[in-house]
Please model this.
Amino acid sequence: TLDTGTIDREGLNGPSVRALLQKNPSANAILPQQWSVRTVGSKNLQTHYKFADFHYAKDLDITRDIIKEFFPHQLEIFDQVMNNHTGHFTNIFLLRRNLFNKYCDWLFKILFEAERRIDISTYSVQSARVFGYLSERLFNVFLKTIPQSEFFPLELERIFIANPDTP
Model:
Protein backbone atom coordinates (compact mmCIF):
# COMPACT_ATOMS: atom_id res chain seq x y z
CA THR A 1 0.00 0.00 0.00
CA LEU A 2 1.04 3.61 -0.40
CA ASP A 3 1.19 4.33 3.30
CA THR A 4 3.65 6.46 5.24
CA GLY A 5 6.03 3.52 5.66
CA THR A 6 6.12 2.87 1.91
CA ILE A 7 6.55 6.55 1.15
CA ASP A 8 9.47 6.83 3.56
CA ARG A 9 11.05 3.49 2.56
CA GLU A 10 10.98 4.41 -1.15
CA GLY A 11 12.16 7.97 -0.53
CA LEU A 12 9.03 9.58 -1.95
CA ASN A 13 9.16 12.65 0.25
CA GLY A 14 10.82 16.03 0.47
CA PRO A 15 13.54 15.15 2.99
CA SER A 16 14.65 12.15 0.92
CA VAL A 17 14.81 14.21 -2.27
CA ARG A 18 16.75 16.98 -0.53
CA ALA A 19 19.22 14.43 0.86
CA LEU A 20 19.66 12.92 -2.60
CA LEU A 21 20.37 16.34 -4.08
CA GLN A 22 22.79 17.19 -1.28
CA LYS A 23 24.74 14.01 -2.12
CA ASN A 24 24.68 15.00 -5.81
CA PRO A 25 24.98 18.82 -5.85
CA SER A 26 25.66 19.05 -9.58
CA ALA A 27 22.45 17.16 -10.47
CA ASN A 28 19.92 19.30 -12.25
CA ALA A 29 17.40 16.55 -13.01
CA ILE A 30 15.99 13.44 -11.40
CA LEU A 31 14.55 11.13 -14.01
CA PRO A 32 13.06 7.66 -14.13
CA GLN A 33 15.40 5.12 -15.68
CA GLN A 34 15.02 4.85 -19.40
CA TRP A 35 12.68 2.17 -20.64
CA SER A 36 12.94 0.32 -23.95
CA VAL A 37 9.86 0.05 -26.13
CA ARG A 38 11.38 -3.16 -27.49
CA THR A 39 10.12 -4.85 -24.32
CA VAL A 40 6.62 -4.53 -25.81
CA GLY A 41 7.66 -5.40 -29.37
CA SER A 42 8.13 -1.92 -30.83
CA LYS A 43 11.11 -0.99 -32.97
CA ASN A 44 11.40 2.60 -31.74
CA LEU A 45 9.49 5.44 -30.09
CA GLN A 46 7.81 6.39 -33.35
CA THR A 47 6.35 2.95 -34.04
CA HIS A 48 5.49 2.55 -30.37
CA TYR A 49 3.41 5.74 -30.54
CA LYS A 50 1.84 5.11 -33.91
CA PHE A 51 0.65 1.58 -33.12
CA ALA A 52 -0.24 1.96 -29.44
CA ASP A 53 -3.84 1.69 -28.31
CA PHE A 54 -5.58 5.06 -28.05
CA HIS A 55 -2.96 6.84 -30.19
CA TYR A 56 -3.32 8.29 -33.67
CA ALA A 57 -0.26 8.40 -35.93
CA LYS A 58 -1.39 11.73 -37.40
CA ASP A 59 -1.01 13.39 -34.00
CA LEU A 60 2.69 12.56 -33.88
CA ASP A 61 3.03 13.76 -37.48
CA ILE A 62 1.34 17.05 -36.56
CA THR A 63 3.73 17.43 -33.64
CA ARG A 64 6.68 16.87 -35.95
CA ASP A 65 5.31 19.55 -38.29
CA ILE A 66 5.04 21.99 -35.38
CA ILE A 67 8.64 21.37 -34.38
CA LYS A 68 9.68 21.84 -38.00
CA GLU A 69 7.90 25.23 -38.04
CA PHE A 70 8.72 26.55 -34.55
CA PHE A 71 12.07 24.88 -33.85
CA PRO A 72 13.53 23.82 -37.22
CA HIS A 73 17.02 23.46 -35.71
CA GLN A 74 15.58 20.72 -33.45
CA LEU A 75 13.87 18.65 -36.14
CA GLU A 76 16.87 16.36 -36.49
CA ILE A 77 16.86 15.81 -32.73
CA PHE A 78 13.13 14.98 -32.83
CA ASP A 79 13.71 12.45 -35.61
CA GLN A 80 16.67 10.89 -33.77
CA VAL A 81 14.65 10.54 -30.57
CA MET A 82 11.72 8.99 -32.43
CA ASN A 83 14.14 6.47 -33.95
CA ASN A 84 15.55 5.51 -30.53
CA HIS A 85 14.12 2.55 -28.68
CA THR A 86 14.58 4.00 -25.19
CA GLY A 87 13.14 6.98 -23.40
CA HIS A 88 12.08 8.49 -20.12
CA PHE A 89 8.35 7.97 -19.75
CA THR A 90 5.52 8.64 -17.26
CA ASN A 91 5.88 12.45 -17.15
CA ILE A 92 7.37 12.08 -13.70
CA PHE A 93 10.62 13.93 -13.10
CA LEU A 94 12.23 16.70 -11.10
CA LEU A 95 14.15 19.51 -12.80
CA ARG A 96 15.99 22.47 -11.34
CA ARG A 97 13.83 25.57 -11.69
CA ASN A 98 15.75 27.14 -14.58
CA LEU A 99 15.60 23.91 -16.57
CA PHE A 100 11.94 23.36 -15.68
CA ASN A 101 11.01 26.87 -16.83
CA LYS A 102 12.88 26.37 -20.09
CA TYR A 103 11.12 23.03 -20.59
CA CYS A 104 7.68 24.47 -19.90
CA ASP A 105 8.20 27.39 -22.29
CA TRP A 106 9.28 25.00 -25.03
CA LEU A 107 6.72 22.26 -24.35
CA PHE A 108 3.65 24.44 -24.03
CA LYS A 109 4.46 26.37 -27.17
CA ILE A 110 4.32 23.03 -29.00
CA LEU A 111 1.32 21.59 -27.14
CA PHE A 112 -0.85 24.70 -27.43
CA GLU A 113 -0.27 24.66 -31.16
CA ALA A 114 -0.98 20.91 -31.27
CA GLU A 115 -4.20 21.53 -29.36
CA ARG A 116 -5.17 24.07 -32.02
CA ARG A 117 -4.48 21.58 -34.86
CA ILE A 118 -5.68 18.25 -33.41
CA ASP A 119 -9.42 17.72 -33.35
CA ILE A 120 -10.20 15.47 -30.39
CA SER A 121 -13.98 15.82 -30.65
CA THR A 122 -14.37 12.20 -31.79
CA TYR A 123 -11.66 10.74 -29.56
CA SER A 124 -12.42 8.37 -26.73
CA VAL A 125 -11.69 9.58 -23.20
CA GLN A 126 -8.42 7.66 -23.29
CA SER A 127 -7.42 8.97 -26.74
CA ALA A 128 -8.24 12.53 -25.68
CA ARG A 129 -5.20 12.30 -23.38
CA VAL A 130 -3.20 12.83 -26.58
CA PHE A 131 -1.32 15.84 -25.22
CA GLY A 132 -0.05 13.82 -22.26
CA TYR A 133 1.03 11.02 -24.60
CA LEU A 134 2.81 13.50 -26.85
CA SER A 135 4.47 15.24 -23.93
CA GLU A 136 6.05 11.95 -22.82
CA ARG A 137 7.82 11.75 -26.16
CA LEU A 138 8.60 15.46 -26.28
CA PHE A 139 10.29 15.31 -22.88
CA ASN A 140 12.90 13.02 -24.44
CA VAL A 141 13.38 15.48 -27.30
CA PHE A 142 13.84 18.34 -24.87
CA LEU A 143 16.46 16.43 -22.90
CA LYS A 144 18.50 15.98 -26.09
CA THR A 145 18.45 19.75 -26.71
CA ILE A 146 20.35 20.40 -23.49
CA PRO A 147 24.11 20.56 -24.07
CA GLN A 148 25.77 17.59 -22.37
CA SER A 149 28.11 19.96 -20.58
CA GLU A 150 25.07 21.49 -18.83
CA PHE A 151 23.03 18.37 -18.10
CA PHE A 152 23.67 16.27 -15.01
CA PRO A 153 20.74 13.92 -14.46
CA LEU A 154 20.22 11.25 -11.85
CA GLU A 155 18.25 8.27 -13.07
CA LEU A 156 16.29 6.35 -10.49
CA GLU A 157 14.42 3.10 -10.73
CA ARG A 158 10.72 3.48 -11.39
CA ILE A 159 8.46 2.15 -8.67
CA PHE A 160 5.17 0.53 -9.54
CA ILE A 161 2.64 0.22 -6.76
CA ALA A 162 -0.07 -2.36 -7.45
CA ASN A 163 -3.37 -2.09 -5.64
CA PRO A 164 -2.51 1.03 -3.63
CA ASP A 165 -5.79 0.82 -1.69
CA THR A 166 -5.21 -2.77 -0.55
CA PRO A 167 -3.96 -3.01 3.03
In short: The mean pLDDT is 94. The helical segments are 4-9, 14-23, 45-51, 57-70, 75-83, 97-117, 130-145. The longest strand covers residues 29-32. The chain is about 50% helix and 10% strand.
